[in-house]
Amino acid sequence: MRMRRILLLFGFMLAATFAVQATTMCLSQDSTATQRKTIYDPTNYSQVRTNLERASRKTFWQRFVERMRKPLIENSPENKFHLVGSVGLGYMSETGVMLSARAMGLYDRDINGPLDFPSIISVAANVSVTGFYAINIAGENYFTDGKNRLSYGVDLTSLPIRFWGLGYEAAKVNPRTEYTKKYHQAKARYLHHVVNNFWVGANLDFRYGYGGEFDPAGLEYLLQGGQSRRSATSAGVGLVAEYDSRNTRINTTKGVFVSILAEMRPEFMSNIDDNLWHITAVADMFQPVWQGGVLAIDLYGDLWSSATPWVFWPAIGGDNRMRGYYYGRYTDRKMLSAQAELRQKIYGPLSCCAWGGAASLFSSHKLFDFSELLPNGGVGLRVELGKSGRLRVDYGFGRKSNELVVSINEAF
Asked: Are 369 and 169 within 8 A, CB to CB?
């Protein structure tokens, strides 16, 4: 009996042992299967890495803005010359799409002069497939005492342009024709600081104008306007007075700028058989009106004497004043214009503007006519480009006229 109990107990223990081992094996197999399921991953990590790199890659516009914001030469205590530049596209109906390149250098004066502006030199070039080109070199140098400065500039321009004739009536009724206008100018202005923001000085100016590649209709328009010559050269000397309280020279947000130039262009300094006189007056005001908003007002006058050849006459239009009119359609000896522009910062580098104004062209002050005032208005968008300025896109409209302008920095 005892032996049977021992054998039954041994059998029970053996069966329990086999049951435990079987359970362990099943659990081990389940764990291995679960582990295999966890370890198996169908994800293509190479593709994921490629997608992440593609998503983090900067767009062309982001790289362009970053490049424009970054100066070509960094400022440092050892390097007092600061250079910024940009390359981009511009547009006006007169020129078509144009490639624009510009560089501006700022250098310190190491003095405590009446203004905080540094000396500046700039070079700009524009060219388009229409045959248009414009090269501009300009600068403003403060001397060591800070109370004297020299401004200078050279402009070389060639522009295939439409032509309706000379004067207000011709622009209204004549069919258009075309010619090529060449205009070269070199100027220098020396100013002395008198008191506060007031400067006085002398101005020297040389100009060459030429009109070529006329068709018979264009030559007839010249004769109808009393002009037969197609080129002229003239130099002049004058007196200039300026008041300048602007906070910056480019993209101003506060201050006043007034400049009046009166010059004589004697016969012996030109190939014109007469003495000429010329007056240019500019009055600009910039006033913050609320957060991010600036009201800018520009008054302008360009007045030439009656004997002035047509190649020197002022014209309405372009990318600064009376945006919305084709440059050169309305041209005469004297021009007056006024414009008011509200500029508003939107968000980050973006801002916008809206403007309105009017201008008049006339051959004599006795013939000024309010009924011939040309209205002007428009809207625009701005994109900050850091220290190199801002991209400007304007759409202007006038009397039976509208224009798109893509340029750099504010119109005034």
From this structure: no
pLDDT in tens, 120-166: 899 999 999 999 999 999 999 988 778 899 999 999 999 999 999 99
| Cα gap 80→109, rounded to integer Å | 9
Residue 53: enclosing H or E segment and its boundaries? helix 45-56
> Under a CB-based contact definition with an 8 Å cutoff, are residues 260 and 240 in contact?
yes
φ, ψ at 81 (rounded to 5°):
-105, 125
Which residues make Cβ contacts (< 8 Å) with residue 120, sequence separation at least 6?
A: 104, 105, 106, 107, 139, 140, 249
Q: Rounded to an integer, what distance in angstroms lies between the CA atom of residue 261 and that of residue 279?
A: 6
Q: pTM of the predicted model, to two decimals? A: 0.79
Round to whole Å and give the CA distance between 255 and 296: 10
Q: How far apart are CA 362 and CA 258, in angstroms?
A: 23
Count the alpha carbons within 13 Å of 232 in the hemisphere toward its beta carbon. 22
Question: pLDDT digits over 60-103, tens only?
Answer: 666 665 655 555 544 555 557 777 777 888 999 899 999 999 88
Domains of the chain in sequence order: 60-408 (2.40.160.50)
- The enclosing H or E element of 152 equals strand 148-163
DSSP helix/strand/coil, 221: helix
Residue 196 — left, alpha, or beta (φ > 0 → left; ψ -120 to 50 → alpha)?
left
